[in-house]
Amino acid sequence: MSALAVPFYQRRHKHFDQSYRNIQTRYVLEEYAARKAASRQAAYYESSGSLGKTTCRLCARRARTLAHEAMQESRKRTHEQKSHASEEKRIRFASELSALEKEIHTARHRAREQLDRLAVQRMVEENMALERHAVEESISRAPEILVRLRSHTVWEKMSVSLCFTVQGFPTPVVQWYKNEELISPASDPGKYRIESKFGVHVLHIHRADFDDSATYSAVATNVHGQASTNCAVIVRRFRGEEEPQPAGIMPFHLPLSYDVCFTHIDVQFLEKFGVTFATEGETLTLKCSMLITPELKRLRPRAEWYRDDVLIKDSEWTKMYFGEGQAALSFTHLNKDDEGLYTLRMVTRGGVNEYSAYLFVRDADALVAGAPGAPMDVKCHDANRDYVIVTWKPPNTTSQSPVIGYFVDKCEVGLENWIQCNDAPVRICKYPVTGLYEGRSYIFRVRAVNNAGISRPSRVSEPVAALDPVDLERTQTVHVDEGRKVIIRKDDLEGDIQIPGPPTNVHASEISKTYVVLSWDPPVPRGREPLTYFIEKSMVGSGSWQRVNAQVAVKSPRYAVFDLAEGKPYVFRVLSANKHGLSDPSEITEPIQPQDTVVAPSTPGRVVATRNTKTSVVVQWDKPKHEEALYGYYIDYSVVGSNHWEASNHKPIKYNRFVVHGLETGEQYIFRVKAVNSVGFSENSQESEAIIVQAALRGSVSHMACPSHPHGITLLNCDGHSMTLGWKAPRFSGGSPILGYYIDKREANHRNWHEVNSSLIHRTIFTVEDLMEDAFYEFKIAAANLVGIGQPSDPSEHFKCKAWTMPEPGPAYDLTICEVRNTSLVLLWKAPVYEGQSPITGYFVDYKEVDTEDWITANEKTTSHRYLKVTDLHKGHTYVFKVRAVNEAGIGKSSEVSEPVLVETRPGTKEIFSGVDDEGNIYLAFDCKEATDASHFVWGKSYEEIDDHDKFKIETEGNHSKLYFKNPDKSDLGTYSISVSDTDGISSSFVMDEEELERLMELSHEIRNPTIPLKSELAYEVLEKGEVRFWIQAESLSPDSTYRFVINDKEVNNGDRHKISCDRSTGIIEMVMEKFTIDNEGTYTVQIQDGKAKNQSSLVLIGDAFKTVLAESDLQRKEFLRKQGPHFSEFLHWKVTEECEVLLNCQVANTKKETVFKWYKDGSGIEADEVPDLQKGECHFTIPRLSRKDEGVYKATLSDDRGHDVSTLELSGKVYDDVMLALSGVSGKSASQLKILCTEEGIRLQCFLKYYNEEMKVSWFHRESKIPSGEKMRIGGGEEVAWLQICEPTEKDKGNYTFEIFGAKESYKRTLDLSGQAFDDAYTEFQRLKAAAFAEKNRGKVIGGLPDVVTIMDGKTLNLTCTVFGNPDPEVVWFKNDKAFELNEHYVVSLEHGKYASLSIKGVTSEDSGKYSIYVKNKYGGETVDVTVSVYRHGEKIPEVKPGQLAKPRPIPPSEEVLGHEANAKPKQK
Q: Which residue among 836, 926, 1308, 1444 sits deepest, i.e. has the most Cβ atoms within 10 Å of its Cβ?
């Protein structure tokens, strides 16, 4: 088989051999012959038919005969011709076939040449594409505008062209905007024309009109960024007093194209992903749904995801999806490497739409508490044959101890065994890994270490191959014809150099405190043999050289040298070697001193925090003076006063500005920053000034910090010449109080608006005068603050100026919804301006869900208040409301419908709470973290703003407000409310009822008439010597406080009997009585006074209470005396170990060398296995296997010249039972699964345990029925096994068996299903063993009498006699040297009574020496016994024989018939 590979253009071709061509040839020839024969036969029948019509019958017969002869002759001639023609055709066909083969061969050769040319052309194109890509990469840059747009002022009906020049690569995509709205020529054909040639982009505006006055912008975008320019176009008229012509009405007609060509695809983001917080190890998907217009299958936008402006591709960790109006980025296993700013860019031919949000990835829980987070961004650099540099970024250790180093692990690709590369932690974030195997690929990971432990491993690096990149330069491939290539290696071009030259250019490519990386150039010439290198070092001044890599040669032209003395300079040299020998050393390097070339960065500068949103803050800082190859910065934040810092980012950021998300609205925070590089962290920066998290003041671009527009304009009254209007204030004031309002009006069908008021209106109601009766008007209103005038409201409805004369009242107005909760809300409104013919008596409130038509009346009877709490609403539903006023004439006009409101409690909603301050003042308080600097807290009673300063006082500070009651009484009962302006409708209410007011007034009275608060009432404790201490503890005591003790109404003073003291720092007052006797029964009282505050506490010790204290005092006094000598600090007790041993333990104290410790049982001394070490204070006695013999009274004694102490434990009765239960529990945990053991008696179920005693509480169950021990079922066990013996098992014995052992707290069960195949196998084995036992019992045996060796002198008679047994009687045969011998007078054999067998040899000679065997066997088997007979001659030394050695029998198995019959027996049914 050829070793050459088949060319690619032949791999899909089918090849046929010569047999195929022969088959085709035969097929064509046979088809041709068949056609010729058919034509001849047809001609013959035609000719015979024509003869029949012209002759008679005789003539016809003669003609047929002649015709037949002619036909026979013709056939013969035709056959000869046919044979000749066939030969000619075969020759001609073979020649044509040969020519065809030559043509095919020529065509194939030409095709091969053409394909080779195409392959070369494709190779050239690929090389050119690579070079083109390299050039494009080198010239790639973001768009840069060279010539900007210029503003134009033109007259109407003139055309204008806007042009600018931009450069960038790839070529930027340009989009044009008018007042920030995208310009699409297809939307207004003939109006706009866009051209782009050679970087010059032009927007032509045809016949500009007044509506074309605007700001025009051009945005150029490519993958590297975007740039923009703008200008203004002003279109002037010849006559300025004319009304502007609507843009939609054109004074001329343009032909509209029905075939609209969409050159712009509009992408509108609908649901976006927000700032996201996740944890390492989780899965996550960032989704963004969008509306694509038009949606064309062949012109779909391209979705690109970026992290920190770096394009993301599908990988093991990230998966992307785009389709069905949704783009998604999924993370299979989050890591801190994934943290960053994520941007979704929808790229179309018309431009780029993008959206960004930040993803924060927290550290996963550490494997060891306090361990640091995992490092990140592990990368490999400078890979070579056996060497690679691994770098990483350090984790943020805000809440952990600092990192002291890192471990680097490596793993071969395809394997799972990780190998640690460094024995000691490396301190910097860079490490050279050596010892790689050439040609293998590796991945790396890093773990951080601190004082608490080791972190989780980082995400693994990208695979890197251990190959020398220089090898590729030393190899050249030349392509020749027919797909062949020639590989030329520079090693083959080397001369006949055997020993290589020395390396050159030896230098330190990297210097660290712990290692130096040496690099050099290979020797020139180097020879053909593979090179290795040896490195030698020498400390400057030492004069000696030491080989660094004596054990392993280096294959790469670089090496990391470790084990260098810190602060000492070194010089190095390198030697090259091959199989022929070692080169001369290279030139010596300059002195190199191991030191860190990069130091930790300096501290960042001033940190400034500014508001951003309700949950985020923008933090900026000055860069450090010495950046030192920064990785980036870490930002920490802390709640003011907590002193607890949290990490904001978990991956270093490179900019000195960052948005900290996830903060709590209204909370006060401080921030700090630290820089990080490969060496470590800088010092923390100074803390920023505290900032409250609130939304920054932002408006639109043209109205920054101006108020939003008013809304809800309502007509409240009309007298025919004036109209009274009401409206609602703006939702947001813009950060400054609203100063007033401006109103514009215009008549219906008029275009011009006219201002109503030149000075500000300060209320939300106003009467517009000088109107025309029966005319229709519409109004719009704008609010103003210090910054300026905000956007006007939408125009109102058309109001007709016609006098109101109806008797019913007009509409209520200014409907306000507050206190929205899950099932209720409060509706407020203002009374109608027009009351009708009579005063208003009440109001009805109606409401309905937004999607329904039926209104529901909330109150069955009218309410006289201008507020109502609407209840029984459905959570999550949206409602609208309206109010109808009522007087004697009836129900008036409905108010304007309120805005829709979602009935649901806002997250973080807070309520008003009541309290009393330190001075006893009663107050209501409310906190609002969403409040801004422009917010106002408005307190009200019955939903009317409180302005009675004689009864109330309001204090507001920051986001906290309090309402104080100056003189609280029953008139203050009612509902109190608060609302916070410039928020999203935050409000709350509080019902002050009689019970709550009484509670607050009692608390106020206690504060204004204080008592000394007590942490603890008067109590007692008995001290070590039997002293009794009485003590009381107050919350706090001043230095001027006084106290006294009173016993039985008599004050006692400090003295010998009563030691009284006070610690004012802790508030503890105590009295200690050294001798507590029967005379001290009575009542004990302590009285305290501190300024105006007083308090006292009493303790009654009479009767049983006194006796308890007295007995405890006596006991403690005796205990104190006992402890003056050697004593038991912990008395004798028992414990069961995991090895099922019983330990009797006790603790001793106050011992010395002379102290004697002894063990006793039932009064008799016993010796322990170990001599007790009294210095350790612990003694124990071990009972290995507890049983009844170990019952008794155990006693331990301690004694020396200072005293004697005894501890006793009675190990019997309940104590013995408890110990046995504990043993059962420990042993039960070790119980194995039930196992089957077959015996000749039946089937035995066994459970192996660490320890078993028949006194343990165990039970056996069969089919959930407890098994008693009996003849059928026997229960027993040994020291380490418990068993159940099933004797003579039957079919009824099948089923589940359970063994249960009971411990002190729980029981342990083991179950076995003895049925089916398990039972059959066990029963078969039982029958076999039973048969074997029976056979063993009844087989033939030699019971005794034969020795193993017999010595006898020749000429004497030898008798070998033994007793045999067997049932039935066995067959007995004697053998000599394993052969039967002939019985005669010399050899006599006898068997008496079937059991006494003997062999007599008369007149033994030396020939009778040998081995004699007796063979005893019946149908159940038998055995053979050998006896060695040694005959010696008279006068020879008698051979030595060991006395008492009996011959050992050899068993003979029973016949297979017997065993098969017994084993095939089946269990019987009983």
A: 926
Sorted by sequence, the CB contacts under 8 Å of residue 609 that are 6+ apart come out as 617, 618, 619, 620, 669, 670, 671, 688, 689, 691
Cα gap 99→116, rounded to integer Å = 26
DSSP state of 281: T
Taking the C-alpha atoms of residue 1235 and residue 579, their distance in angstroms, rounded to an integer, is 66
Mean pLDDT of all residues in 4-23: 38
For helices 18-52 and 57-139, the axis angle rounded to 10 degrees is 150
- Tokens 């709490």 sit at which residue? 869
1038: three-class secondary structure by DSSP: coil
Q: Using alpha carbons, list the distances in angstroms from residue 1092 to 1008, 1009, 1016, 1037, 1089.
A: 10, 8, 20, 12, 7
Question: Would strands 813-818 and 856-857 be described as parallel, antiparallel, or unpaired?
Answer: unpaired
Going from the C-alpha of 313 to that of each of 221, 317, 321, 618, the distances in angstroms are 21, 10, 11, 30
Q: Output the CA angle 57-63-64, nearest 5 degrees.
A: 90
pTM (two decimals): 0.46
Q: Choose between 476 and 614: higher pLDDT.
A: 614
Residue 242 confidence (pLDDT) above 90: no
Report the pLDDT value the prediction gives residue 254, as an integer from 0 to 100: 33
1054-1073, pLDDT tens digit by residue? 888 888 999 988 999 999 99
At residue 996, φ and ψ (nearest 5 deg) are: -65, -40
User: Terminal CA-to-CA distance of the chain, rounded, Å?
Assistant: 77
Q: Which residues pair with 992 in a beta bridge?
A: 974
Listed in sequence order, the residues at least 6 apart from 210 whose beta carbon sits closer than 8 Å to its beta carbon are 156, 235, 237, 244, 245
C-alpha–C-alpha distance, residues 598 and 679, integer Å: 7
User: How many Cβ atoms from other residues are within 10 Å of residue 1127's Cβ?
Assistant: 22
Asked if residues 444 and 378 have their Cβ atoms less than 8 Å apart, the reply is yes
Count H helices and E strands in the chain, helices first.
9, 97
- Which residue(s) pair with 953 in the sheet? 964
Instruction: Reply yes or no on whether the pLDDT at 35 is more than 60.
Output: no
For residue 1316, the tally of other CB atoms under 10 A from its CB is 9
Torsions phi, psi for 296 (to 5 deg): -110, 135
* Beta-sheet pairing, 1371-1376 with 1379-1380: antiparallel
> Per the structure block, which two tokens stand in for 1115?
């006991």
Element spanning 598, H or E = none
Which of 615, 547, 607, 606 is CA-nearest to residue 582? Answer: 547
Q: Model confidence over 1177-1235: pLDDT tens digits?
A: 888 888 888 888 889 999 999 999 888 889 999 989 888 888 888 888 888 888 899 89
The angle formed by the CA atoms of residues 619, 622 and 624, to the nearest 5 degrees, is 125
Let me know: does 598 contact 430? Beta carbons within 8 Å.
Answer: no
Gyration radius of the chain over CA positions: 56
Phi, psi of 925 (to 5 degrees): -135, 155
Q: What long-range pairs does 116-125 form, CB within 8 A, spacing at least 24?
A: 116/481, 116/482, 116/483, 119/483, 120/479, 123/479
